[in-house]
């Protein structure tokens, strides 16, 4: 379902112009307006979902094959040396547009970008408590 006040719904459904690199019945993939590198692309579902937690299963199932198609094109045509998939859920995780999107960020030798986190450490007991907590 499309959400009236959502800019990515409008982009995904072609209501406002975008630099589209791929489209099918479920997704539109567009160049990111503030690219990390050349070719930085966002895959947008045409139906609104805020984030991964409410992405319908049929979209979730189709997402990685779609990402793979676009990533292959990037490898062949942009000659990227690598690629990051990034997907933020919730403000605390860095999500700024509340319509699900998967970033495809082609990487090039010496592109000067840094995508990552500060590695931490945990004791065996802490790991085990966390593992149990996730399993539920
Ligand atoms: P997030 O931080 O939510 O994972 O990523 C949002 C991304 O959307 C950012 O990389 C930002 O540059 C991009 N963005 C924000 N508004 C627009 C827009 O109107 N069009 C396009 N193509 N990208 C946008
Ligand atoms: Zn939306």
List keywords for this structure.
136 residues, alpha+beta, 5-stranded antiparallel sheet, binds guanosine-5'-monophosphate, binds zinc ion
Task: Tell me what the structure shows.
The chain has 136 residues and is of the alpha+beta class. The protein is 29% helix and 18% strand. The chain has 3 helices and 5 strands. It has helices at 7-12, 57-78, 124-135; strands spanning 20-23, 27-31, 41-45, 82-86, 102-107. Strands 1-2-3-5-4 form a 5-stranded antiparallel sheet. β1 (20-23) and β2 (27-31) form a beta hairpin. The longest helix has 22 residues, at 57-78. The chain is globular. The protein starts with 6 loop residues before the first helix and ends with a helix. It binds guanosine-5'-monophosphate and zinc ion. Guanosine-5'-monophosphate is lined by residues 7, 18, 30-34, 42, 88, 94-97. Residues 3, 6, 8-9, 48, 99 line the site of zinc ion (ZN).
Q: What does the secondary structure layout of this molecule look like, with pairings?
A:
Layout: H1 7-12, E1 20-23, E2 27-31, E3 41-45, H2 57-78, E4 82-86, E5 102-107, H3 124-135
Antiparallel strand pairs: 1-2, 2-3, 3-5, 4-5
The site of zinc ion (ZN) has 6 residues, from helix 1.
Give the % helix.
25-40%
List the strand order in the largest sheet. 1-2-3-5-4
| Ligands bound to this protein structure | guanosine-5'-monophosphate, zinc ion
Low-pLDDT stretches are none
**Percent of residues in beta strands:** 15-25%
- Structural class, from helix and strand content? alpha+beta
Distance between the termini: 32 Å
List the secondary-structure elements in sequence, H or E: HEEEHEEH
Count the E strands: 5
The number of distinct helices, counting runs of at least 4 residues, comes to 3
Radius of gyration: 17 Å
Biggest sheet: strands, sense, closure? 5 strands, antiparallel
The pLDDT mean sits at 97
Shape: globular
